[in-house]
Write a structure and sequence with these properties.
There is one protein chain. This protein is mainly alpha-helical. It folds into two domains: 291 residues, Cytochrome Bc1 Complex, Chain C (Up-down Bundle), CATH 1.20.810; 166 residues, no CATH class. The protein is built from 18 helices and two strands. Strands 1-2 form a two-stranded antiparallel ribbon. Helix 12 crosses helix 13, helix 13 packs antiparallel against helix 18 and helix 17 runs antiparallel to helix 18. It is globular, with a radius of gyration of 25 Å. The structure holds protoporphyrin IX containing FE (HEM). Protoporphyrin IX containing FE binds next to helix 3, helix 5, helix 6 and helix 10.
Length: 466
């Protein structure tokens, strides 16, 4: 698409005749929905390998969620007595119900995957730099909302999978208790218990939990997301369109701009059709799981949280407080603070901030991969601190474990990089890459290599018969 790249930009501009120009501008400005776009966009934003259309795909997946969710709500009843049967009716009796449920389920999983991909693309192109910091923060909040939406929806079928996954999730919420127990203050101040109660309305998952999750899932979270998405899109326009390298920063007016109508609009329509077709095909090929009705006196073993929290569950198996609260909060704090710590906007719009950055990213990924695998090997083969020193104080277990050790080491490596390279952007690349790779490895281990009693197995076929 680019003719040359020496210094001043000279991309192929789109120069229609005056009449045609007015028509094309009018198409956008007269239409409420299309008006979400500026009438002209920079050609750099149209490069498929810049955004991969991930933000748009997310928006369309959200639309599918809302559309299928509203249909599901016609038949679903949020009561512990009837919820399971109503989902069974949707699957086996309501015409088209199975497909709608499958689409809802797979689109929601798709959102989790795509939102992380979008996060990676925005981070690695330095698109949080400059005045885009607020939009990055809004994005992180939306990421949390997507995870909560998924989690709250998980309970609704009220089957064994849902019940025990949410039970585990709610125990993770109570992980501050490890610390308050150690301090001996749980009877006085119990933030873990409070959080758990807030989430599920009691000590165990029951009707209060189902009612709360239902309200969160169908009203509070979708509405919050809708509002934030509106602000997110509005900010993109306010920030002057998508990010682009500094050499194009001065491009204004007609030069180097393309009219959003018709090319961008047709491209987005094509993406919509592809997304809907993709979700529909997956929904036709694979059914959303539905086990037996929830039975509170018959725990699943292993009881696993939803897959996107399995990385955290793996960390919790080392220390509830460090893995369930401390490290995830530090990670979130890091995500929120990135644009305020790193202000080197010379890297904006450049994938990996150039060759130097790419090298650093690859090295960091390799380092994190090896480090986490070695730690896992040690934990599985030789056990943790408690196995080595049986009488060791719980304080040591809380402070010295793979969750805290990994986080600390990544931070130190990032700090050394910052000092050595005199660049916060390079340090951010290191810390972000290391923690993301670690999260992926912990999640993979949680999904595929943990079996009954959270023991390590190479495959589910090795699980003992229960
Ligand atoms: C429901 C979730 C989200 C939706 C629907 C959404 C949608 C979009 C869309 C359509 C764009 C423009 C096209 C593109 O970049 O692909 C965009 C850009 C952006 N998004 Fe998101 N996004 C979401 C979540 C996030 C998250 C989790 C982050 C990061 C924490 C984020 C940060 C940004 C930023 C900073 C931009 C501007 C990028 C630039 O100027 O190049 N978004 N988003």
């Amino acid at each position: 698409m680019e003719r040359e790249s020496s210094g001043k930009s000279s991309m192929i501009p789109d120069h229609p005749e005056e009449g045609d120009r007015k028509e094309r501008v009018g198409k956008i400005t007269r239409n409420f929905f299309l008006h979400i776009h500026a009438t002209r966009v920079h050609l750099y934003s149209m490069k498929p390998t810049y955004t991969f259309g991930l933000g748009i795909i997310l928006g369309f997946l959200f639309l599918i969620m809302v559309f299928t969710g509203v249909i599901l709500m016609i038949y679903y009843t949020p009561s512990v007595e009837t919820a399971y049967q109503s989902v069974k009716d949707i699957v086996y009796i309501v015409p088209g119900g199975r497909i709608i449920r499958n689409m809802h389920r797979w689109a929601s999983q798709g959102m989790v995957i795509v939102v992380f991909m979008h996060l990676l693309r925005v981070f690695y192109t330095g698109s949080y730099l400059g005045n885009r910091s607020l939009n990055w923060v809004i994005g992180v909040v939306m990421l949390i909302l997507i995870l909560l939406s998924n989690f709250s929806g998980y309970l609704l079928p009220w089957d064994q999978l849902a019940y025990w996954a949410v039970t585990i999730g709610s125990n993770i919420a109570a992980s501050a208790r490890e610390l308050t127990d150690l301090l001996g203050i749980t009877s006085v101040i119990d933030p873990g218990g409070f959080l758990k109660k807030l989430l599920i309305g009691g000590e165990t998952v029951g009707q209060p939990a189902l009612s709360r999750f239902f309200t969160l899932h169908v009203i509070f979270l979708p509405l919050s997301m809708l509002v934030l998405m509106g602000v997110h899109f509005w900010r993109i326009r306010k920030d002057g369109g998508l990010s682009r390298p500094l050499r194009y920063a001065g491009d204004k007016g007609g030069t180097n701009k393309w009219y959003a109508w018709p090319v961008l609009m047709w491209t987005e329509l094509a993406i919509l059709i592809l997304v809907v077709t993709g979700v529909l095909l997956i929904a036709l090929l694979a059914d959303a799981p539905l086990l037996e009705k929830a039975n509170p006196s018959f725990p699943e073993n292993p009881a696993k949280s939803p897959w996107y929290f399995l990385g955290i569950q793996e960390l919790v198996s080392y220390s509830a407080f460090a893995g369930g609260l401390l490290v995830p909060l530090l990670y979130l704090g890091f995500l929120f603070s990135i644009p305020y710590k790193d202000r080197e906007d010379k890297y904006v719009g450049e994938w990996f901030s150039g060759k130097k950055g790419l090298k650093l990213v690859l090295r960091s990924a390799g380092f994190a991969l090896v480090l986490v695998i070695i730690q896992l090997f040690i934990m599985v083969r030789f056990g943790g601190l408690r196995d080595w020193i049986p009488g060791v104080s719980q304080w040591f277990v809380l402070l010295i474990n793979p969750a805290t050790f990994t986080a600390l080491l990544f931070f130190v490596v990032a700090e050394v990089t910052r000092k050595k390279m005199k660049s916060t952007r390079m340090a951010a690349l290191v810390l972000f890459t290391c923690s993301f790779v670690a999260l992926v490895v912990f999640t993979v281990v949680g999904i595929w290599f943990r079996g009954p009693n959270w023991e390590f197995f190479w495959s589910a076929s090795q699980w003992p018969i229960q």
